[in-house]
Design brief:
This protein has five helices and 27 strands. By secondary structure, it is of the alpha+beta class. The strands form seven sheets. A five-stranded mixed sheet has the order 21-20-19-27-22, with no helix packed on it. It has a four-stranded antiparallel sheet with strand order 1-2-5-4, with no helix packed on it. The termini are far apart.
């Protein structure tokens, strides 16, 4: 092979330059420059190239010195594997997803698997702690109170696995708003003992258009085995009753499973609970307006005949079966609140201390003590604006018919009025659905 020899007097012929020769950071030697200087400059160019490569590798996060020719991926993978090996096995599940805006007010809680909870902290938007309790086996937590609607909460749950390795779960969520949810207030309350005429009555705070789904998620059963059917009065009231009065001594259970149930466009139920109450002895009292007498029967036997003074001929008392829905040791009765007004707008009567009052209708019919009427009217004449009055004392003291009947009565007891000149009370005027035939009642069911 021919060798090319260059000398100062015989320079090398021009050739295409290599990439190294195009590096702008290396000054090209002038023709005739000493060979030693040329080699030094070429060495500097190569050194600069390697330095640039080293900077590039460092910027990508790899460490060439850690693995010889490794590009850095194996080093990161090793770190990930080590972290995974030391991770806790416990899995924490918060009932509401982080960021949820329609969380339940009933089902908030925490559950864990492969470990046990060590602490749970639930706070509202103001930083107030919401009390709760970890289960005895350490696998779940529930708040001690029902959460508020339309409220933001933050939960921090901590747990450990069998090896003592810890894990933490955080979540922030907002419960369903009042505008987008509905609640039914109901009677009777849990644990009460009531009379045989007491229906289960729900009043919803929103108009319900999806009546079938709402009704189907409320189950009312009796230990007596009586069939119980719901009936809608309009779009916001739903009552339940059997064909005849409840059996004395039976236990009634209502399971409310409305949490998440669509009640209509844009509204969802938020209630989930089971309520039970007991039916006491059977007491049905019959008021005869012809004789101005009330006959009180308990378990089918006459307990007492009590003289009364019912509604006047101008303001007769409703006929029909009426259920005692409220009891007051003493209450104010102002005629202006129920339509009995004078020309000046004041009530035709305004008695601030009516004793032993028991409500029979939503429109203002009461059975109550009367201390202002002459004793001669009881058992003889109707003098009231529609109420049924019993002789009583101011302040409610002493041994009087008014006090006796009040003490012997339960919410849910039935008072039947007959032979009045007035119409029969409407089924939805109070808790008085018994004034509807069983076939009509069933027709009002949505399921």
């Amino acid at each position: 092979m021919e060798q090319l020899v260059t000398t100062p007097d015989n320079p090398a012929p021009a050739r295409s330059r290599t990439p190294h020769q195009l590096l702008p950071s290396v000054e090209q030697p002038a023709p005739g420059a000493p060979r030693r200087n040329r080699r030094m400059r070429r060495t500097l160019a190569v050194t600069a190239l390697f330095a640039a490569g080293a900077l590039t590798l460092s910027a990508c996060g790899g460490d060439a010195s850690a693995g010889g020719n490794d590009d850095g991926k194996n080093g990161q993978a090793g770190a990930d594997a080590a972290a995974a090996k030391n991770a806790s096995d416990v899995k924490i599940k918060v009932s509401s997803d982080d960021g949820a805006t329609n969380a339940s007010i009933n089902d908030t809680g925490v559950k864990v698997t492969d470990g046990k909870l060590t602490s749970v902290k639930l706070t509202d938007a103001n930083g107030k702690d919401i009390a709760g309790a970890i289960s005895s086996d350490g696998t779940s937590w529930k708040p001690g109170v029902q959460l508020e609607r339309g409220t933001k909460y933050r939960i921090v749950a901590k747990a450990k696995d069998a090896k003592g390795r810890a894990a933490t779960e955080n979540a922030s969520f907002t419960t369903v708003s009042s505008a987008n949810s509905f609640i039914g207030s109901y009677t009777p309350d849990d644990g009460k003992t009531v009379g045989v005429g007491m229906p289960v009555s729900f009043n919803f705070d929103k108009v319900i258009t999806n009546k079938k789904d709402v009704q189907s998620h409320i189950k009312v059963t009796s230990s007596s085995g009586q069939q119980v059917v719901g009936h809608w009065f309009g779009a916001q009231r739903l009552d339940f009753r059997p064909e005849d009065y409840w059996k004395a001594g039976s236990k009634i259970t209502m399971k409310i499973d409305l949490d998440g149930v669509k009640g209509g466009q844009g509204i969802t139920g938020v209630q989930s609970k089971t309520v039970s109450f007991t039916i006491g002895r059977s007491q049905v009292s019959t008021v005869d307006m012809n004789t101005q007498t009330m006959t009180v029967k308990r378990d089918g036997k006459t307990l007492k005949n009590v003289p009364i003074s019912g509604g006047s001929p101008e303001n007769p008392t409703y006929n029909g079966q009426m259920v005692i829905s409220e009891k007051f040791e003493q209450t104010r009765m102002d005629g202006s609140t129920v339509g009995f007004k004078k020309k000046d707008g004041k009530g035709e009567y305004d008695i601030p201390d009516v004793p032993h009052a028991m409500r029979l209708s939503a429109s203002g019919t009461f059975l109550h003590g009367n201390y202002w009427g002459s004793p001669s009217i009881f058992g003889q004449a109707g003098t009231s604006h529609g109420c049924v009055g019993l002789r009583d004392n101011k302040g409610g003291g002493g041994d009087t018919p008014g006090k006796w009947f009040f003490n012997e009565s339960l919410i849910g007891d039935v008072v039947v009025v007959k032979n009045s000149k007035d119409e029969t009370v409407k089924p939805d005027n109070g808790l008085n659905g018994w004034n509807m035939s069983w076939s009509e009642w069933q027709q009002g069911s949505a399921v």
